[in-house]
Design brief:
about 300 residues; alpha/beta; about 15% strand; globular
Length: about 300
């Protein structure tokens, strides 16, 4: 697996630099080199970009080893609201470049979500300007459906598609997204492969989370729903995130899946780096678990 930077900064009190740097260095020591961040993973003055700028200032030789995938195009005045207009895409990328200050190139850039008020083609073409200028390496998509992937690849090649995937959230395996990416040769970057901790046997009730934990705002972690989903987790047994592998093959198409679990400690990075090899029977067991999963409530509040 590779890693998400979300949990290092998207919290009331960001993880201190010594702990964050230790986490990132441990990732590199385990060849975890795809790092996924966002300009909205934290406030405008303390998000993924600021952490990365400090890290690469201290560890400049590490920059060449990292493939940095960033999400942006948020509207700073409206929190997580995505503004996919050409003007705001330019503002977003320019701000990311300013904060990074030349210490690391943006290898992949994507709008955090599709702006329903702006044609996605406009958003993609705006990012493409920075690709042509050599300031961004490639263009990604986040939380899109299969038809959208096929449509916008005509505007510019797509480097990756980021979507949620776990035993509790397996929809992309049946709604055409995974199949489309496999047919088009586009890797899938799978976030929350452990169901935001529900599949890691660590959360059974709201009190198991810190008071400032963002999961308190997610429907699946609300009182009542969390307990029900934790009970459902016991049915999964030790499968956890095993169902999110490096590739999934179905009916003649093969898709590369890159999981990006989030973490805040070197210990968890080490755990995530350990490879798990399944037998065919074990894969079949995981597939049976996936098909029988029953999850209470939606992934996000309305509008996200």
């Amino acid at each position: 697996p590779n890693t998400s930077l979300r949990d290092l900064t998207w919290r009331t009190t960001p993880i201190p630099d010594p702990q964050a740097f230790d986490t990132l260095n441990t990732a590199l020591a385990n060849d975890i080199t795809l790092w996924n961040g966002a300009e909205f993973y934290g406030p405008p003055y303390a998000n993924s970009l600021h952490l990365l700028a400090r890290f690469f200032a201290t560890h400049p030789s590490s920059a060449a080893r990292v493939c940095l995938s960033l999400k942006g195009s948020s509207d700073p005045s409206k929190g997580l609201h995505i503004d996919g207009s050409r003007a705001n895409v330019r503002r977003s990328i320019s701000e990311c470049l300013r904060v990074l200050d030349g210490r690391k190139k943006i290898d992949i850039f994507a709008a955090g979500r599709v702006d329903p008020n702006v044609p996605l083609e406009e958003t993609i073409s705006a990012i493409a300007e920075y690709v042509r200028d050599g300031k961004v390496g490639g263009i990604g998509l986040s939380e899109v459906d299969a038809d959208t992937i096929r449509r916008v690849r005509g505007v510019h090649p797509i480097a990756a598609v980021e979507v949620e995937l776990s035993l509790q959230t397996p929809e992309i395996l049946t709604n055409g997204v995974a199949r489309t990416c496999g047919e088009l040769g586009i890797p899938i970057v799978a976030y929350s492969p452990l169901g935001r901790g529900l599949l890691a046997n660590r959360i059974t009730k709201p009190g198991d989370m810190d008071k400032d934990d963002l999961r308190h705002h997610l429907p699946r972690f609300a009182p009542g729903a969390l307990e029900a989903n934790a009970r459902e987790e016991r049915v999964y047994g030790g499968a956890g995130g095993v169902g999110v592998g490096e590739a999934v093959e179905r009916e003649g198409w093969l898709v590369e899946i890159v999981p990006i679990p989030g973490t805040t400690t070197a210990e968890r990075v080490q755990e995530n780096a350990e490879a798990v090899v399944l037998t065919e029977d074990e894969w079949n067991d995981v597939e049976d678990i996936r098909k029988g999963a029953e999850v209470v409530r939606a992934r996000y509040p309305g509008g996200h």
